[in-house]
Structures are given as C-alpha cells and as structure tokens.
Specification:
The chain is α+β, with helices and mostly antiparallel strands. The protein is about 30% helix and about 25% strand. Strands 15-16-17-18-20-19 form a 6-stranded mixed β-sheet, with helices on one face. A 5-stranded mixed β-sheet has the order 3-2-1-13-14, sandwiched between helices. Helix 4 runs parallel beside helix 5, helix 8 runs parallel beside helix 9 and helix 11 crosses helix 12. The termini are far apart.
C-alpha cells in the first residue's frame, strides 16, 4: 500500500493529511492559538473534591477546570492506601484534598462542555520508548507479536529501568538497534529531569512539559505504514523536520521533500475537497446508496440507505451489497472525521445470518487499518451494530466548525409559517398584559413578506379583534427565527 503525508504550514495553523493509495484517509489540524493538550504535564491545584463522583476538579490554568477520577490517580498511591493493587479504588477524599498541588498529565482534550481528563500516572513518549516515572519495569507493545523480538527488546530495555524509571517499548521499536534504544532512554531521562526542575520552581501558569507540535508528533508516531514521501510546503518547517528526523527517525529523512509548487499542497489528491465533504451529513456511495452521519455529544449514529441502487437479482442482494460497500466507507469516515466514543450503525435490515456475519467481518477488516483502538460488538436485538472508538481529541467537525447561531445546533429552522403564528400569538399576549395604541412587528424579509401577503387575512382579523393597528417592518439583519413586537 502506497502512502504519503502532506504537511501544510501557515503561521497560525498546521495541517497534516495521510494519503493512502491516492485517497485521503486522515487529517490532523492544529492551530497555534488552540494547540492540543494531550500529553502535556502540569502542576495543578485541587480546587474541589466530589466524593459522590469519586473525582476531583483540578486547576491547570485553562478556561475549564480539568477532571481527575480516583481510578486515574497514581497506582502506587492507591496501593499504599490499600496494600493491594487489586482492591477497590479508595475514597477520593483519602487520596487528594482541596488546595493540594499535583503533577498531572492530560489524557483527553476538553470536549464540548467537558474539561480536560487527567491522570497522575505520567508518561513521556519518544520514537521507540515511553518513560514511566515512578515505575521500575519494562513493558512491550502488544502489537509486537514475535516472541523472540519481544524477549530481545525486553532484555535490552530492562537494563535502563531502575526504582524511579520504567519504560514501555513502542511498536515502532520492532527491529530497532540497541544504540537507538539507549539514545531514546537517555533523552527521556533528560526530559524528566527538566520537568522535575520546573516542578521545584512551582511553575503553575504554564505546562511543565508540552508534547511536540503536530507535524513532529505525526512523524514520530507514524508506524506500520511505509511512507513513500512526506511533502512539506514550508521551507522553515522542512529544515526543522529534517533535523528532527536525522536525530530521531533517520529512516524517514530520505523521504522528506520540500514542496514549493504554486498549486496549494492540499489540492493534491483532492484533499481540500475531501475535507469539505467530511463536514457534510450525507455521504454518497458509488452504488447510489448513502450514509447519514449524525454526531451528538453522547454518541454518533450512522444510517445506511440503498438510494437508487436496485441490484441485479433481488432485494436481498441489493441490501447485502450496499451494506458491504458501506462498511468500507464507514471505516474511512470514522478515521477522516476522527469520530470517537459510542457509535451506533443502522445497517439496512438483512434476513440472512450469513450476510450479517459477513457484514460484521467486512467492518472489522476495514477498521483494522485504524491505529486508534476500537471494538465492534455485533448486532443488537434491534438490529443495530454497536461499536466504540477511542476518543482522545476533538473531531474534525468540532475543530473546524462552531454551533450555528441561527438554529443553535439543532440542524433545522422553524418554518416561516411557524414564526408568523408565533408573532400573532405574541401580539395577543402583549396586548392583554399592557396598554398600547398600536404594534410594530420587526422580522426577517421572508417572515414579513409572508405576514403581509399569505397571512394578510389573519393579520387583518387580529387587528379587528384587538382594535389596534399592526404594522409590519422588515429588519434585514434578522435571521428567519428572530422577531420583535414593539408597543407604541
């Protein structure tokens, strides 16, 4: 499978696109004013302890207080309180108290109305290793399956561990030489020493440690994909990434390429247009069917429709073929939109159990290319497929869009007719409550025209009913749902 990265850099924003076989599969966006927080380490202050939720709110100098659950508090501390790691997590009040300072790390960015999620089990990642301060053992990524390689790596990395420094061997370390692993371990130890120094100075207004910026992070973490090229449209960023790869990811230095072309880099492979399509609710399938994707705070729902596709033999074949095609599209859209949490898929109803099994298998196969952890739970009693996908950062929609100021996120508007009837009822209500000589209605052009033309008789009857003049005026700045009833 051919793959390449496109890196688009401007002073205010960096975007990275992963292209596989000529098709956009993932897009990452980071804005300088709103850099992601996952991986950042802070010296936070406990501002509130909530025993009923087994949690505490921590001030790390963000707009919203961050959230720390008892189960995310350092396992050593819990063990010390309990004497047994397998015991139930103790009362949050025995672990932290208000006013206490804690070194914490962000594991989930703020999402919607929720603050960042924290842990006190700190980790610092490099290319091949993850440092676990306070631990003393070596762990190996589950994705490294070869037993001999696992034993080789554990033997090497165990020598770097002591009472205060443990390491996890990342998937990218498979086949890595001992000098490279040692270099990573020494680098991580130096980073941890710097963090400790900043902690002693009680640096509380800024992060004690901040993870790499987007382009560097993506290149550091890319694994399992053979990249043919990494194209960067900024000469400064290209030079910085070249230095970074030479030190940390030397096998990628040769594929780095500065892109000076006049054509915008995200116009290559139609990436810009694909990003715009990923913001649409409806996704067309090649067969004529479609996906309808609705993202809410609680979950994401995906509905599959056959559309104009009628198949060549019978209805069951049509349904099965559409559902199989949909599995590929769903897997791609989940990666492209970075949708996480609970996902409910409403495939078109199938009578055949074999067809259901094959659709599930196709979905799992398509999702296997996704490096984000997921779980498919099969068909429910209602015929819905339930699945989860780990969510650590905001979706593409939340990064690029904001709530509609007109519909307040509902996704629909009251009809002109509905607004007109609301206006007529409001006039009656105000007339009963206050003494006025006449009324002036300010409304959008669509509503005012409908009132004066289509609802003329109702307006005239209301004037007779209340015995007062009603004047309608257009307010060009009003949206369809806005209106004012003014007493004169």
């Amino acid at each position: 499978m051919s793959a390449e990265l496109l890196v688009n850099v401007t002073p205010s924003e960096t975007r990275v696109a992963l292209i596989e076989n000529g098709v956009l599969q993932e897009v990452h966006v980071e804005r300088e004013a709103r850099r992601g927080l996952v991986g950042n380490i802070y010296l936070g202050k406990v501002i509130r302890v909530l025993p009923g939720m087994q949690a505490a709110f921590i001030d790390i100098n963000l707009d919203k207080a961050a959230f720390l659950h008892a189960s995310d508090i350092n396992s050593k501390l819990i063990t010390a309180k309990n004497g047994n790691e397998n015991d139930q997590v103790p009362d949050i009040r025995t672990l932290v108290h208000e006013g206490q300072y804690l070194m914490v790390q962000v594991v989930k960015d703020p999402l919607g109305t929720k603050g960042a999620r924290l842990t006190t089990d700190l980790t610092i990642a490099s290319r091949y290793l993850v440092l676990m301060p306070g631990a003393h053992h070596a762990g190996i990524s589950q994705r490294i399956e070869d037993v001999n390689e696992r034993n080789r790596l554990k033997g090497i990395v165990s020598d770097y561990c002591d009472d205060q420094h443990g390491f996890i061997v990342r998937t990218a370390a498979e086949g890595a030489d001992e000098p490279d692993l040692k270099h990573d371990a020494e680098f991580l130890r130096r980073v941890w020493e710097k963090i400790q120094e900043r902690k002693q100075r009680k640096v509380v207004k800024t992060a004690l440690y901040q993870d790499l910026s987007l382009a560097f992070r993506v290149i550091r973490d890319v694994v399992g994909i053979s990249l043919e090229r990494i194209r960067i449209d900024s000469k400064l960023s290209f030079d910085q990434l070249a230095d970074f790869t030479r030190e940390f990811v030397p096998e990628l230095t040769s594929v780095l390429e500065y892109y000076p072309g006049e054509r915008p880099i995200f116009d290559l492979f139609d990436a810009e247009r694909e990003i715009q399509r990923a913001l649409h609710r409806k996704i067309e399938l090649k067969s004529g069917g479609s996906l309808i994707i609705d993202q809410t705070e609680a979950m994401t729902t995906i509905d599959i429709n056959t559309g104009a596709y009628v198949g060549h033999r019978n209805l069951e074949e049509t349904i099965f073929s559409t559902n199989i095609e949909a599995t590929q599209a769903i897997a791609r859209q989940l990666r492209l939109r970075n949708l996480g949490g609970i996902i409910i898929i409403d495939f078109i109803d199938m009578n055949s159990e074999e067809h259901k099994h094959r659709v599930l298998h196709s979905l799992e196969q398509a999702m296997s290319k996704d490096k984000v952890k997921f779980s498919v739970h099969g068909f429910s009693s209602l015929g819905l497929v339930e699945m989860t996908r780990k969510r650590t950062r905001e979706s593409l929609e939340h990064v690029l869009c904001s709530e509609c100021s007109v519909c307040s996120g509902r996704g629909n508007l009251k009809t002109v007719e509905t607004v007109c009837f609301e206006i007529l009822r409001e006039i009656v209500r105000v007339n009963r409550a206050y003494d006025a000589d006449k009324f002036i209605v300010y409304a959008s052009s669509q509503v005012s025209e409908f009132l004066v033309n289509d609802e003329y008789h109702n307006l005239a009857e209301l004037e007779v009913f209340i015995g007062k003049l009603i004047k309608v005026q257009t307010e060009p700045m009003y949206n369809q749902e806005q209106f004012d009833v003014i007493m004169m």
